[in-house]
Each structure stands twice: as C-alpha cells, then as structure tokens.
What does this fold into?
Amino acid sequence: MNLSRLIFIISFALVAIVTNAQPSNFQNCEVIKYSTNIDLSETKLSGTDSIVILINNRNGEKYTRISIPSDKNTKLSGLSVWIETADGKKIRELKKSEFQVKSAVDAMSLYEDDFVTTCYAKHNEYPYRIGYTYTHSTSQFIYIADWSPVLFPEIRTRQAKLRVTIPANIKTSVYVRNAILLTKENAGHSVISSYSASFNIPYNREEFGSSIEDVEPRVCIVPDEFTMGIKGSYNDWTTLGNWHYNLNKNLLDLPQDEIQRVKSIYQGEQSPLEITRKIYHYLQDNTRYINVSIGIGGLRTYPAAYVAKNKYGDCKALSNYMKAMLKIAGIESYTVIIQNDLQPSQILFENAFSIFNHVILVVPLQNDTIWIEATSHSMPFNYVHSGIQNRKALLIEENKSRLINTPAFGTGDNSISRKVKIDLNELGEATVSTDFVFRGYYFELFNELKSLYHSDDQDRFIRDYMPFTLYDMTDWQLERADRDSSSISLQTHCNIFKALRKAGDEYYFESLPVRTGKFEKPADRKLPLELPFPYMDIDSTELAVPGGFKIASLPENCAFQSDFGIYSSTFTLEGNKLLILKKLVIRAQTIPLGEYGSFYEFIEKIRKTDKKIVILKKSG
It folds into this structure.
C-alpha cells in the first residue's frame, strides 16, 4: 500500500472499500458481444471466448489494451485480435509481433507460474470495434465454469452468452445469479446448457458497498469430482478439505539443525501458550512474506524445509513452516483456508472453495484458541485482524475438515480514542497536545505506517491526519507498548494560530467533530451498505480558558441512539476548564438499499448535532 492510498483511507473513521471501478464510461465504450463456449471431455477442459468492444471516442481508448491471462497448467491457443468499423467491416488484424507475453509477477512475488499476453488495438477514426478470440485448455481444474459477462465493472455489456457442453455421466452442481438458462438438452453422450446475461448498470465505488463479485451476473458449475494435482470431491466441506489435506501432506519435515534451533527457542518453557508465542516471534523475526505461486495452481505449499533454508514464503508456506515448528514442540495446529478481505464475498453455494484466497493457522489449546497470521512481521501474537475477522473459513483436518467462524471485532476492538488538551491565550492562539489510541482496523493502518514507511513519510502522513487547520506541529511520537500489543498510540504537540473566531464582542470555539465517514446521498446510492465491523469514536477535549475570558454560552448536552448506533456529547465547566466528551458507536450490520435512507438520516443527524459552538467573552 502506497502512502497516498494510506492517507486517503485513514482520513475517515469509516473507511471506504475501494474497488477498481471508475465512474460510468457507457458513452465512451461498451461490450457489444461476449460469448463463451466451454467444452469438457473426460480428460480436458477447454473454453473459447469471443469478445467485441465498441470504442466510441478518445476517452474509450483506455480499454484498447487487451490482456489474456494464462498459467503453466493452462494452454492458451487460437488468439486473434482485429479492428473493425462500427458496422463490422474488418480494418486489420494484429500481427504476432504486436503481442507481448510477460510473467504476471507483482511487487510481492518472487516468481509465479502466471503469465499475461497483452497487445494494444487502437485506430484513428471513431467509432470502431475491437474483436478478439482465444481458447484456454487444461487438464487440471476444480471448476468447469465460473463465468460473468462483466469485462469491466464500469462498462456496459449489451449481450453475453455462455454455452457449456459436459459429458452426461459427469455429475455437477450449478449456481446461477442474474443469468437466464435458455436451453438444456441432451446431445448424444453430452448435456449442452446455454445461458444469457447482460450488464447494463455501471458498478461504481460506494462507501462499504457490495463488491462486484457479489452483484454481477454469474454462472458457476462445479463437478462432483475433479483432478487438481490429485483427485478431489465437492461432495461436502469434509471431502473438499481432504483433497487439500492430501495435496499438502508430508511437507512438515525440517532439517536436524533447524529442529535443534527451534527447541532452543522454547527451552525451559512449559506453557503451550508461551511456547507458541516464542515460536511465532521467531517466525516473525526470521522470515518474510514473498509470493511463490508455482505448480498446482498455487494451491500446494512449499515444504517447511524450503522456508527454513530460504527464510521466505507465501501464506501457505509460512503457515506450514509454523505448523512444522509447533509439531516439534508437540503442539497440534491446523491449517485454515480463508478469504482475506475487509468485506468478504458471499459463499455462492455449498463447498465454494474458490472464494478462499489466504491461509492462516489455528492452535487449539486447553483454555484458549490461538490464531496465527504468518505473513506479517509486526502483527501481535494471537491477533485476528480486520481482513479475516467475523467470517466462515475452512479448517483442514484429515477426515474432519469443516467450516468454522473466526472471532468478530467487538465495539471496543475497533476504535479511535482521542484526548486533546487545548491551552488558549488572549490572542486566540493555542498550544495543543493530543493523545490518540488506535485499535482494530486503525491499529493495523498506523502499525503499517510505523513498521513499513520511512520517517519522512510518517511525518507527512501524521501532519495530514491531524484535525486542525492553520497549525504547526512541533513533535509527535508513534509507539506500541510491546510487540504483542493490539493498540498503538500517537502523541502530538501543536500550535494553532486561530483557535478562536471573533464576531463582535464574542469569540467562538468550535468543538472537534466526531468522525462519521462520507456516505452517498440516498438518491445516489445503488448498493446495500455492508459494515463489516463496529466502530467506536471517543473524544475527550479539555479546554483551558485564558485569564480575561469567560464562558458566555455552552451547547446543550445531547444523547440519542437507533438500530444503527449511538451518539452522545456533554459539556462540563470546572473552574477555568471546559471538559467536552463525545462518543459515537456505529454497529456492524448489512443495511438493505431500501433502508439506507434511514441510516443516512442517522448519520446526518449526528453531523448536524455535533456542530457545537462554545461562546466566550472577555470578562470585566
């Protein structure tokens, strides 16, 4: 995550869930044809896509880059790209020399088996069409079809069709959302199913809106039995877990020198909890996360001995290495397959394995359950972070694999506490000290800032985060109590140049607002609101009134609540000090689009009520 992105997210108490979607480009570009033909034989799965895109003007040219993914287990063939007029007359076909094949390695990858073939299909007269077709084929798969007509979330797809041919003796499960089954017929020894769909409403980014994966038309077809490395079954979560267990078994052996090293870590310790903690700290201090996606679609882990030698691995390999070290200490642990995302996508149907994208470890002790995130060198021990909290996951145990629920954030687990002391002077200036304590999602962001960014970037970010205008920061300190603390504190000292606003013989002091986030007006909202965890904001301000001034008017205390949350504010004068306490709680919940207006009214009521003005006058 780059610094500007981090600043954007954390500027609001309620973070926006950001997709790749952009504002609607319907007038610039649209997909006018999208057809997919999938053919399953006894030994091979092949699929052919044929797509035609209409480019209406220069603004649509960003969609002229064609990218076709593939991997070591999937053969790409029959690729053809051409440009034609708006009425379908071919202008030219792209040459082989215009295509580039690159490894799809990202910044956190060492190497991968994923590739991407790209080209640019541009023309100088508008409108024009880009057509392309290609075929993928593989003998290793767990899905027959996972199809959607959405090529770009912000672009219309006028018409899309899916045709699937499956041998009649192969049993399947089918999930369909917002697509139409046109025909299903027997043809000799095969069953042919045809579907149609379109996508006519642009998907735009919204605060805590559903992901595109949860709203787009979709057809998923899975075989009851499959081969991916080894044979597997979709009969239930247990059989699916057995496939994963057998795919990754016998990979826990460590070299003898590593075994002795691990034993020395916990030598003399008797508590399984503390032994697990020490081994976890060793993992954090001596390994790093690097994506290594090689073989069996990136589903099989590298052996524990590989990580012991190279000191890096992906989530699978690091979790497996941790599991191997715990085994040396006689502590049982289990691999857990999970979706790592602030807002997890829906499980489309029973045994929908492809939803999972991450691996963690769970350690069941006698009086506690320990959760291990093996990919972070700065996460606290036994910390369930925002990307994995409160969701279903698949625990892998031989013949006993099952869905489990991860712990959910409580209200106090995801919060910002802010204590502010303001000393006013007779000129309306102020010296200010602040003390923030961040927990939950906000702890994770500031912890990332502290552990991954240069001090200059930290300074710029913290200055941008402060809730003041016309101020100068003299110093700041960002720290955790210890490495396993799940909170992080930020202390700052500032000078504010205009803390009071003069109007006649009165001086106005505006209390610091609570952080409510930014939400669309109901008329602009298109998606349900999904708040994945609760949020609590506690603000305490101590205002020291300077000599020669007095409080002329205080706002009334206020408190109200609804199904969506709680708000309160109190103003108490004690001598020359004014104490302001504000509290906001937003509850975790999914709010249907039809009820969003009521939620928005609740947020607007908070904003209007929270604009509190303290009036001061000169005494005497």
In short: The longest strand covers residues 29-40. The radius of gyration is 29 Å. Confidence is low (pLDDT under 50) at residues 1-24, 106-111. The chain is about 15% helix and 40% strand.
